Please model this.
Amino acid sequence: MIGHTESTEATAQTVQLRLRNVPRTSWRFLRRWPVVPVVVIVLLATFALFAPLIAPFDPNDQNLRRSLARPMWYSEYYQTDPIGQRLETRHILGADKFGRDVFSRVVYGTRVSLAVAIIAMASGTILGAWAGITTGFYGGLFDELMTRFVDVWNALPFLLIALVVSITVGQGVIIMMVLLIMLTWVGLVRNVRAEVLSLKTRDYVLAARVAGASDIRLMYRHILPGVSNLLLVLASLRVGGLILTEASLSFLGVGIPSRIPSWGQMISDGRDTLDEAWWISFFPGLGIFLTVMSMNFLGDWIRDRTDPRLRQLSD
Amino acid sequence: MRNFLARRLMFAALSMIVASMAVFGLAHAKEDPINLFIQPGYFMAPETLAALKAKWGLDKPLVLQYLTWAGNMLRGDLGDSVQQQRPVTKIVGEKWGATAQLAIVAWIFGTITGVPLGIVSALKRGSPTDYFARGFALFGQSLPAFWVGLVGIWIFAVYLGWLPVFGRGSGLPFFEQAKHYVLPVLVLGWGPMAGYMRITRSAMLEVLDSEYIKLARAKGVSNRVVVWKHALRNALIQPLTIATLLLAGFMDGAVLVEVIFAWPGVGRVAVEAVNQNDFMLITGTVFIFTALYLVMSLVADLLYTIVDPRIRYA
Model:
């Protein structure tokens, strides 16, 4: 009997202790794991995948009666449209000059940003890994040419080059993707090459060579795993910048064609009506900011987690 | 040192040649490059057309075309703007001052805020100040500059009415003109400031952790002297070397900022040139920016050797 009461008291005490620790442990958990960035990115991925289900309107559906309709929290929202009829449908984040629903366009815009992040980053990383490993492994003339090319590319103002391309070659999704892939892989070559130069003199690589491994096998079985860590960290650190670049190009009107809703384009659309309809430009920009911020956070976290030696890479 | 300088100069020249080849190649992505020199839909006298073809060697083989073109560039003839019918060098020359002014003011702003912030952040590692500074830097690297510019206009110019909406405000009294600089400089300077802050912070942390700092402390040197004399001098090498590159790198940012704030500079000229299909004008600006960047990186390398004598170039 006595023992029983004691144990309940003890349990109550531990529970109390645990409860007192909840804020501290949850804070620790939040600092240890990238909860917020992952939540944002999962949300974006959901938006991108299920855009037709989530968006209440077709993103390109124009309706001049709803031109510059206000977001739903405005009290004047329930008032009449310019003709004098009551508005039936709600626009969560308002509508733009052509009466296109801003929320739907923001939802569809995630598709462009994530596609850029995935396609340009993945192909750029693969190309960059290939170029970095080959140049570092073989050296010689190819290496020299590639290094010079990287230096020259770095000296060119990227946005202006993109503008030149848009005049001479034209505009479109594929052209923009090619530009972004170029931007990505050229940025990787130097880092990968430096790592390969040190890896290829390691004993285990030399041993594999003595054992009769071919060049291809050496590069892809023995050296590639050694740089995969670096590739992951670089890719995750740079993907945010890539999304920003895409948005900048679309903002200048040389990126994604206007029939596809993209965040950069939307910000540009709202410029003229900034004084009466701030929401057109504001929300896509908020989307870009949240996405890039999450990616940067996640990149920092992956870098710190995988290899503290890489700390200087972000700068 | 002389060898190094010669090599760097050769590399700069090589870069210019490759860049010119790239632009030339892009120009010939269209079937007939003459279309880049004349305005579509406008009549041009056959003699003028022939003169234009002769000047740019458009009737010769591709290699000769390139050489003619490069020769014209070398002589400082970047061609005529199709839209304005004026030499590109003249147009860029007129707009150059506005861009340079904006870039330099933003550069000064980024330097005098970013570097001290990095130092403080490193000295008070883990403190609220450190978190605040790092958060501020992270924002600077995650926010799209053109959006910050628009939101800034919306809040400070449209809503509050404190600052002018656009333009450079030339001809106004100094204080009024300074108001025109506030938003563009903040927007253009935020990203570089974040870069400065991160680099200064990590350099400072690394130096503070080194053996000679520990020795200095063990000898009983006062904290102030250790921080400001021993540590800071060595930690400043990295920010200093990127300083020149950042100034050149402002050119990309300047394009966006000038478009948003209707700043009458070269970046806006470039974007307008795109909208009007003015090929010569945009290649001209690309060339000038590239040359500028190469000169800046040369200066950065030289500064590096002067500041850090440990570095020797073979």
